[in-house]
Design a protein that fits this description.
This protein has 95 residues and is mainly alpha-helical. It contains four helices and two strands; from the N terminus they run H-H-H-E-E-H. It has helices at 6-16, 23-29, 34-46, 63-94, and strands at residues 50-53, 58-61. Strand 1 (50-53) and strand 2 form a beta hairpin. Helix 1 crosses helix 4.
Length: 95
């Protein structure tokens, strides 16, 4: 697996917890060890991006977390567009 930034990992966790998810589901969907997942969930809970639901023992992305995820997706789309444009320019220069 390629290197993932901290924000990439946070995005995967927020996406996995969208609608509610157990620790195990979050761990597998974000490709983290149990210790890493525990640390991230603690930090995200403190920041108000996810909340723990006692009933069902699940974590759920909060409205604030969904806003962060939406902003991250917009930024990633912009970077993808920049990268696609760069690749097109290189292809044109090579021909």
């Amino acid at each position: 697996m390629k290197y993932r930034s901290r924000s990439d990992i946070i995005g995967l966790i927020l996406e996995a917890a969208n609608g509610g998810a157990t620790k195990t589901k979050i761990m597998y969907k974000s490709y983290l060890s149990f210790a890493q997942m525990r640390d991230y969930l603690g930090m995200l809970t403190e920041q108000g991006l996810v909340e723990y639901e006692e009933l069902g023992h699940r974590f759920k992305t909060t409205a604030k977390g969904l806003r962060v995820l939406q902003i991250q997706n917009q930024i990633n789309e912009e970077f993808d567009a920049i990268d696609d444009d760069r690749k097109r320019r290189i292809a044109v220069e090579l021909h």
